[in-house]
């Protein structure tokens, strides 16, 4: 049985109107209608709320409809990708800042022969990390705004 039919059957079994169920879930009546007509599917948080209201297991609610199962798997995958992107952004920016701080801490010296010794390579590496962090951050924001 598809998810929409399950919701409709459960709602009728508990003698609830679409409006009453919508109020319990803090959504609009149109949202309930779109779920029942298989135009949209709820997210995982909403599925948990539905299972609690109707006192059924998530297995019964989700596994009955392969479309719902694949949507929740896709949502989980998207969330994992977003977290990885955010962590990558933070790590890259911190690594860039770390390179600049390390260069400042090491400083530069001139030996007896008049040769300058300084960790110049830390500057381009720091800028590279900052640039990669900014690119990663824009990708994260773009994906976030798209969904």
From TrEMBL:
Keywords: DNA-binding, Membrane, Transmembrane, Transmembrane helix. Residues 7-61 form the HTH cro/C1-type domain. Signal peptide: none annotated. Coiled coil: none annotated. The chain crosses the membrane at residues 84-106, 121-142. The keyword tRNA-binding does not apply. It comes from the Bacteria. InterPro entries: Cro/C1-type_HTH, DUF3955, Lambda_DNA-bd_dom_sf. GO terms for molecular function: DNA binding. The keyword Ribosomal protein does not apply. PANTHER family: HELIX-TURN-HELIX DOMAIN PROTEIN (PTHR46558:SF15), TRACRIPTIONAL REGULATORY PROTEIN-RELATED-RELATED (PTHR46558). This is Transcriptional regulator. The lineage of its organism: Bacteria, Bacillati, Bacillota, Bacilli, Lactobacillales.
